[in-house]
Amino acid sequence: MKKYLAYGIIIIGLLGFFYFNNKTEVKDTQVYQPLNEENNNIKHTSEDAIYYVEIRGEVRFPNVYQIRENEILKTLIDKAGGLTEEADISMINQAAIVEKNSLIVIPKVIKEDFHEEVPTTEVDIVENYIYVDVKGEVNNPGVYWVKASSRVFEVIDLAGGLTSLADTSGIYLSEIVKDGSTIIVPKLDEVVDITVQITGAINRPGYYQLPAGSTLEALIAEAGGLTVKADKTTINYHLSLTDGDVITVQEMIVIEKIYVSIKGEVINPGVYYVEETISVKDLITLAGGLTEYANAQAINYNQTLILGSIVLVPKILVDDYEPITEPSGLININTASLDELQTLKGIGEILGQRIIDYRNEYGYFQNIEDIQLVSGIKSSIYEEIKDFITVG
Prior knowledge:
This protein is α/β, with parallel strands linked by helices. It has helices spanning 2-23, 73-79, 122-128, 152-158, 216-222, 280-286, 338-341, 349-362, 379-385; strands at residues 50-57, 63-68, 103-106, 129-136, 142-147, 182-185, 193-200, 206-211, 246-249, 257-264, 270-275, 310-313, 331-332, 389-390. The chain has four domains: 50-185, no CATH class; 193-249, Roll (Ubiquitin-like (UB roll)), CATH 3.10.20; 257-313; 331-390, Photosystem II 12 kDa extrinsic protein (DNA polymerase, domain 1, Orthogonal Bundle), CATH 1.10.150.320. The protein starts with a helix and ends with a strand. Residues 23-42, 112-119, 122-126 and 319-325 have low confidence and may be disordered.
């Protein structure tokens, strides 16, 4: 009895399993798989050209896609994930060949509140979308299918935007485009260079090429800047340069000071610390002016003064001049004439004239030993005449 009871329980369990298994609903989930080369029936070769096409509107994944030559619109739609539920393809030929660098817009079904199922007519499509040709300096020139209310800048954006050489100065970017119109984006005029030369107080003097309309400030920067000696007060940094200009940067004028000596017939002879550009006339004024015995006609006013220069202001020589007679009968070497000097032993005409030239150039002798400073008068001559001369 127990044996039959066990068999019955097994049979009931199997019947229940099959019953509930048949009641279970299996729901298939459709997951979109982008169309690839393996499930595409179109055969391509490696020689087929590859283009880019943008698809927008009622597709699941609007974007820019690669296509091969002679691919049809249906293939592009599949690459974009297929159509949405609101896509209107009543006026679209999915078997049409896709043009390269074009824009495809899948429109949406137009529904109106008072009539839910008004079909979209061909007139609606024509009124809402137009064709525009974009050429020139855009990244993706071509024919684009755009909304009728689109403006020029929106169409340029669809064409990949402007290139770096685009000139939009003459384009009305906010203008609404018309069906069949052409937008041409011109290229910027080529920049013309100019050649200029810069010299003077500049770190890298020479010739430089700069864009037309450049200023002196740009040229100075290109030439490495000014040197420390440059006189910035004379520079017009905003000066506009032209081709062939030669610019010279002046150096600052630095006035140095020097020591010079003035002797002879001036009120205050001595050594003076003066600017190196001082003239002999100004030096005489600085020394108090000439004495009444000064020979102004004999002064060398053109003498160039340098460090250590000596300016001698000579005395007027009078023909009937009689030297002061010394009580001792000695000859005054500061006042004696040439004839008187020649009376000294060893002093002839040449040495006598040298004594006179020396005192005219350097002033009076301070002591009798100074006569040895005259060229040609050696110690042997001095020993012969020292007892007969004076500087009294």
